[in-house]
Design goal:
By secondary structure, this protein is of the alpha/beta class. Strands 5, 6, 7, 8, 9, 10, 11 and 12 form an eight-stranded mixed beta sheet that branches. A four-stranded antiparallel beta sheet has the order 2-3-1-4. Helix 6 runs parallel beside helix 8, helix 7 packs antiparallel against helix 8 and helix 14 runs parallel beside helix 15. The chain starts with a helix and ends with a strand.
Amino acid sequence: MSRQKRRAVDPARLAAFEVLKAVRVDDGYTNLLLPAVLARHGLTGRDAAFTTELASGTIRRQGTYDAVLAACIDRPLRKVEAKVLDALRLGAHQLLAMRVPTHAAIDTTVTLVRNQVNQGAAGFSNAVLRKVAARDLEAWLADVAPDDLAVAHSHPAWVVDELRRALGDRAGELPALLAADNDPPRVTLVARPGLAAREELPGTPTRYSPYGVVLDGGDPAGVAAVAEGRAGVQDEGSQLVALALASSPVEGRDERWIDLCAGPGGKASLLAALAAEHGARLTGVELHHHRARLVARAAAAGGGLAGVVRADATRAPFADASADRILLDAPCTGLGALRRRPEARWRRRPADVIALVGLQRALLAEAVRVLRPGGALLYATCSPVLAETADVVTATLAEHPDVRLEDVAGHLPAVPDAEGPLPGTVQLWPHRHGTDAMFLALLRKA
């Protein structure tokens, strides 16, 4: 391929195309792939923002765009070459959801296909995108998804069903929740107590966390406190998880805190700083080597980190009844963080819920074993799915009659309208609170 052809492709669109390919082929995560891709293409400022929105937005709205493209193509989408389909989705997002002139969206996409595939595929893409451009998104939705929330809001149907069940008697909020899942999340920073003050971070103070700010713009790595490890990037919902555990009273000794699933270290970093203020030390547990290193690096700035143990948390290397406070932020489907991880909605399957619930119950049983009487155990998931939240907690309470469920909402008094599926639990929502859909349950061993 000649250098002249390569130069003809817009770098921002080529970068977005590369992200889509890596997500599809390598099971990559959009937010983790973007920094390296942007750096490789030398994209900064507005070009970097354009690429980020193009890649992330396309993946978020993939279900909607596939329905539109299917109406414009005379064969099943599965028979369209994957690279061509990636480019068509990028083109559809520019035409239907971005302020890109029609001729620019079509011309740059066709050039991209010509460069990355061949001339024949470029002609095909040109014809398809001209059909897409004939209507706006509202008109297309009225045609391809008049009464289908899954297509209109680009969620798999089974995910829509699970979210409807999780909303319970407020299922009328479902369209607002699905729409919030498609809103790009703003960058939120956390000032780690004892290391940084919120006032030194640029941005608007968060509504509920006393340590957070919503960044007004720019690269968070350019903030001095972040670069020095005294602050970090963390969703407000995750900040509230750490705050809820740290503010829950314990009876007697309060020295040994454990984060049973600590990687990659965001909650552990805040929890370690809070532990230091209590005169306690936090031990992180992480199975995977690279994630354990991330935890150690993220939480090192404080003085509250006792260390990171590489271990399987279902067989934690701690004695019975030896921990004063335990955080179990359990592995889950991640369906509460679809704003942040747009590819998760397409990657997860109903069978994943069954497998994860088994793991969650095993982890929670182990946490109960390690928790001492009078101590506090916070079970959290970044998923509102009832099988992963209320059902796991209910099963644990049935299996452990010495464990009781306590009111965690009382330790987050500033957060309104967050009643969880069990009395005393908390369920945060993107459309109500502007956070990931974190679930919190506080358990105590009598």
